[in-house]
Amino acid sequence: MKAPISMVACVLTLLVTQTNDAIAQACIQVPVDCRVTSAFGSRYNPITKNYSSEFHHGVDFGCPIGSKVVAADAGVVSVSAFSASAGNWIVARGAGTTIKYMHHERNLAPVGSSLSKGQEIAKTGNTGRSTGPHLHFQVETGGKAVDPMSNFCSKPPLKPGVLQGADPEQGDVLDKGSQATAPADNGGVPPPMGMDGSLSEIIGDIVAARTLNPDYMRQISGLSEPRLYAELAYMQSIRLKVQHERSQHRERIAATQAMLQLLMADDVLRSQLELQRKAAANAGASGN
């Protein structure tokens, strides 16, 4: 006798639900709401400036200092301390997996505490051997570091190509903050110029993307000749802009120093005039 269609549908639904629940339990949560700035594997070492022997055993997330770090999976904290290399870091051991979180501004989970997935454990920082604020996230299985990207429950946003004209790698997902948008009209009022406001932030991001980006040398090594020329021209234009701003800054320093010298000279003249006035008054009193 064949089972009713409705019963078969219920059984299939139950199996799908159980499968989805098992997948959800097996995956790990993205630990921070930030973009991946350096992936697992071979890379350029921003500390030693080594191009060949560096192997990155984790994934770096570029985050503002103080961003929330959550446990990617359940586990028990075995290390919550400061290290000269890892900074403030936490090690959590779970079922066959060890997860390391590094470079925190502050640890919130003490040794021995039991963590649940999604629980806040730290605030991101720039402690230890670090070239900029970020979280180093490292997953180990059987004592060996593994690439966690395929195990995340949802794919984290990746850093777009930082080079002028470069496209993100295939499969990269950009967050909304990295999408280029047309500037608002602002009612016809021109945006502020100079090293303040949004322009300063833009230049800061552009410069940091080239001076603090640990993958910069690897990225430019894969560019075509036209794109290398474009990148060179772009960096030269940035240099001219920065030089112009520095020139203005030097002029303002010189103007401030000149004002201080005038004030100091004024104080000296005032004291000299006061001494002369007192001397004249004393001389007049003596003559009388």
TrEMBL record:
InterPro entries: Cell_wall_metabolism_enzyme, Dup_hybrid_motif, M23ase_b-sheet_dom. The keyword Iron does not apply. Keywords: Plasmid, Signal. Transmembrane segments: none annotated. Residues 1-24 form the signal peptide. One of its GO terms (molecular function) is metalloendopeptidase activity. Residues 159-193 are annotated as: Disordered. Residues 55-148 form the M23ase beta-sheet core domain. Pfam families: Peptidase_M23. The keyword Signal applies. Gene3D superfamilies: Glucose Permease (Domain IIA). It comes from the Bacteria. CDD domains: M23_peptidase. This is M23ase beta-sheet core domain-containing protein. It comes from Acidovorax carolinensis. The lineage of its organism: Bacteria, Pseudomonadati, Pseudomonadota, Betaproteobacteria, Burkholderiales.
